[in-house]
Amino acid sequence: MVIKVRFGTKDDIDALVDVECSWVKEWHHYSSRGQGAPAQYNELRPWERVIHGGPWMDKTALRKYWERVKRLGITPLVAETDGKVVGHLDVIFSYEHTLGRFLYLDVLTVHKAYRRKGVAKALIKEAEKLARNGKAGSMLVEPEKYEGPSGLTYRSYGFEKAFDVYTLEASIDHQEMPHGIQLIPVPQMQRAPIKTHTMICGWYNITAKVWDYNLNPDVQLLHAFHCHQLAFSALTNSDLYFFHVKQNYFDYSTGTIYLWAPTHINQNALQLVLRTVKSTASWFGMKRLTTRSIQKNVAPLERAGFILKSKDEPYLIKTVT
Fold first, then answer.
1. Are residues 306 and 188 in the same domain?
2. Number of domains in the chain
3. Nearest C-alpha neighbor of 87 from the set 9, 15, 14
4. Last residue within a domain, chosen from 141, 175, 198
5. DSSP state, 283?
6. Which residues of 45-71 are buried (b: 16+ CB within 10 A; e: fewer)?
7. CA-wise closest residue to 215 among 229, 199, 226
8. I need a surface site. Which of 187, 225, 256, 291 has the fewest CB within 10 A?
9. Could you report the per-residue pLDDT of 138-161, keeping only the tens digit for each?
10. What is the pLDDT of residues 209-241, one digit of tens each?
11. pTM metric for this prediction
């Protein structure tokens, strides 16, 4: 089978939705109570389709997502054989203080009917060419499962463990706003502070995407679940922090925290900011905060009152030469 990889365009939207939907065994309705009754695809509202796997599950949502693609500089790669799109991979050049400039391999999906035919490897190979031409020092990816098909595919192509990721949790046991800190709302179009700050909380993706999704959320989903999101810069006596808090769709008492700190962490300032985060989250009735972070940040977060809950799938990296 001859596989050709090229840049994707809006003309590929129908085919990309078909690729993603090929993996859904059963569609369901959704509400704030969670997954509801089984349904046919055409019976679902667009946001219900998105819940099953992101904007790639619905043509209207994917057309809207293309605005984010342009804003973030995401490069969509598509693989086709005999003129049929059978897989895709979104990549984005980015930067993190611990990594320098790298190419992030974001969403990789192969049509279920074409798996194990070399489609994924063809896409990864093309991504490496982009990384090399774009002078990235490495490629980074978070596989669905380290020991599963995705992890094995990347590792067979030379990727190695970059760092472990952990889920942590903290209770909101007070509501009083601490003294000695100033809050300023973050403008919607403010750029991610990738060169000046490091992401302490929120390793669900890289800074560029996490930041953009929180400042430019899916309004349909927020309205459907009546949830809230906050984005503030927090100025202490010595440092500037940024934090976002997102209320859980299915459990309003739980929120997710994303936090960016100066590269040299001041433990006292960090604890002050996290107390502020808890206070703002309490405005909307949240009783608990969860987050994901990399290993080097676990100890400072534990000292600030977070409890380690689980070790998650690691990120993988490959040096580009």
1. yes
2. 2
3. 15
4. 141
5. T
6. eebbbbbbebbbbbbebbebbbeebee
7. 229
8. 187
9. 999 999 888 888 899 999 999 999
10. 999 999 999 888 888 888 999 999 999 988 999
11. 0.93
